[in-house]
Recover the amino acids of this structure.
């Protein structure tokens, strides 16, 4: 098998970009650290680097997870515009997190938050699919997007209601979390996110060939010897789990699952066995870069990373929607 | 000879008050080349979907190699039966070769890469469908006929014993139509059974060994082209007047009335 020029450059750039963005994210911020100083023994700087390392690990896995789950949704729903945020999955998961906090179950175990997020993400997905009546096919794919936006809006309204009943102390932190906050405070949750995202991606790669076939449509998948329903449930279930843990840890960060998979497909083609791995890495690099910009652009205060991804992703979504409209006639 | 696929008393409807199929029976044997013809809405595509198991009948059953189709493992089924549907679309930028390679899915374990024999089947399928020069082109950027040939190549790569095709020649030019029918004849000579749905009655008459004429979900006539293509049967099924003439090799030709 020969790689195209674009693909070869894409693979060669991956380690270079990964290393560069990690170093950039460790150095940049309200206090710039010279790259050479990263390995010196200065207590103050070391504790700052430790904090940035945690942030770096959080941004990377959240970005990777969102891009991987977006790729899976797009294959199953035959819709390149599908991603956790637009489908209302992130909204459902965030409502689950807020409820877990409100009901006090979050204090019982650190697994309660991702569990609530996962259950509500699945509920949101089932409701979206039921409303759109699209099943797994692409015929009703516009309905799926509209249903996702409606469910996402309803979840946001419920979330607002919960927030309006919180005390002012919690208000600031939950607002930051809602806009996407990557300074993980709970190391157990961060570890869970890494395990779920890496484990989920491995399973998705195993089902990569099936994801390829299912993107040809339910009937073709059936004719080629895979069970469309079983495969769709596995792919959607894992994608929702990865999105849910990402939301539990860092709130709602939109459009990563839209932008990165689209660019990956243009460069590397549409073989999902490769795409899931590439999206994990490039999704991680993308969000890590956005986050570093978000906390460096203003000297006095950082910008929530969700704002940066929305600024990039919103116009990108409109561009894709227009392009689709032109292609479909 | 044993039946490769057999539909036994199939019953099906899309609306409860309007049954489409009532006790429908049909069988295809090893090495058969059957053409299924009939007017729009006569149930041809529905029958194909019932035979593939994609639709489930309300009554009756389909037997594949004398096993109940619906209780078969999906991979085992796809190794015997391949289907070419009417229209396939995807938003993904797959290449022709990628889609043809997907035809090998039922023969591969989850993580397994394509083996030497898989590549051989893919190459042969690309060659049979005249797609070698297009193999790295994107499926979405092909013409309707080229897409159709890609999907047929993917079905051939499945290495099936029985091939069901729904309007495979609808988007093809005359040259590729004839080429496809010749390839199907060649596959038949190797022992593959073939069932084709088409509105091109004369093409079916030329290449199929047996024709089944459907009308309102029932078999109106079944037999050789000369037996089925009769002016009165055509009038009954299609509600039109035609004259039928036979060529020297007994192939019927339809001449529409003025």
């Amino acid at each position: 098998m020969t790689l195209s020029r674009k693909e070869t450059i894409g693979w060669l750039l991956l380690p270079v970009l990964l290393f560069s963005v990690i170093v950039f994210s460790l150095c940049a911020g309200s206090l710039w650290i010279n790259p050479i100083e990263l390995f010196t023994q200065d207590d103050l700087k070391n504790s700052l680097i430790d904090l940035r390392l945690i942030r770096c690990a959080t941004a990377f896995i959240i970005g990777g997870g969102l891009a991987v789950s977006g790729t899976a949704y797009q294959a199953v729903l035959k819709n390149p515009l599908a991603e956790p945020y637009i489908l209302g999955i992130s909204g459902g998961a965030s409502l689950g997190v807020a409820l877990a906090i409100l009901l006090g179950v979050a204090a019982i175990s650190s697994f309660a938050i991702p569990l609530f997020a996962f259950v509500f993400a699945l509920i949101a997905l089932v409701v979206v699919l039921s409303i759109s009546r699209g099943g797994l096919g692409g015929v009703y794919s516009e309905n799926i997007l509209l249903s996702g936006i409606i469910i996402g809006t309803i979840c946001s309204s419920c979330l607002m209601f919960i927030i309006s009943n919180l005390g002012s102390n919690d208000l600031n932190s939950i607002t930051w979390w809602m806009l996407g906050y990557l300074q993980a405070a709970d190391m157990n949750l961060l570890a869970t996110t890494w395990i779920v995202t890496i484990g989920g991606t491995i399973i998705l790669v195993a089902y990569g060939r099936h994801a390829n076939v299912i993107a040809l449509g339910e009937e073709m998948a059936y004719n080629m010897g895979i069970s469309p329903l079983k495969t769709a449930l596995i792919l959607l279930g894992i994608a929702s789990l990865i999105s849910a843990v990402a939301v539990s840890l860092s709130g709602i960060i939109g459009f990563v699952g839209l932008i990165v998979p689209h660019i990956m497909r243009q460069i590397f083609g549409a073989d999902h066995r490769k795409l899931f791995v590439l999206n994990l890495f490039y999704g991680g690099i993308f969000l890590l870069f956005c986050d570093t910009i978000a906390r460096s652009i203003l000297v006095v205060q950082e910008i929530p990373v969700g704002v940066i991804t929305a600024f990039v992703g919103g116009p990108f979504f409109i561009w894709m929607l227009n392009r689709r409209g032109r292609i479909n006639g | 000879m044993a039946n490769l696929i057999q539909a036994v008393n199939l019953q099906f409807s899309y609306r409860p008050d309007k049954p489409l199929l009532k006790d429908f029976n049909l069988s295809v044997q090893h090495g058969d080349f059957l053409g299924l013809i009939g007017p729009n809405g006569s149930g041809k595509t529905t029958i194909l979907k019932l035979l593939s198991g994609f639709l489930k009948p309300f009554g009756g059953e389909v037997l594949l190699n004398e096993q109940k189709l619906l209780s078969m493992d999906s991979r085992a089924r796809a190794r015997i039966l391949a289907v070419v549907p009417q229209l396939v679309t995807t938003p993904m930028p797959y290449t022709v070769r990628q889609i043809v390679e997907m035809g090998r899915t039922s023969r591969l374990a989850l993580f397994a890469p394509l083996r030497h024999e898989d590549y051989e089947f893919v190459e042969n399928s690309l060659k049979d469908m005249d797609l070698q020069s297009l193999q790295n082109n994107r499926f979405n950027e092909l013409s309707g006929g080229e897409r159709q040939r890609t999907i047929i190549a993917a079905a051939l790569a499945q290495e099936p014993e029985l091939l069901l095709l729904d309007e495979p020649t609808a988007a093809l030019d005359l040259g590729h139509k004839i080429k496809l029918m010749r390839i199907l004849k060649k596959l038949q000579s190797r022992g593959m059974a073939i069932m084709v749905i088409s509105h091109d009655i004369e093409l079916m008459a030329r290449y199929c060994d047996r024709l089944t004429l459907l009308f309102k979900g029932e078999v109106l006539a079944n037999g050789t082209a000369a037996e089925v293509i009769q002016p009165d049967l055509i009038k009954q099924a299609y509600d039109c007047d035609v004259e039928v003439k036979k060529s020297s090799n007994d192939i019927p030709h339809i001449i529409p009335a003025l």
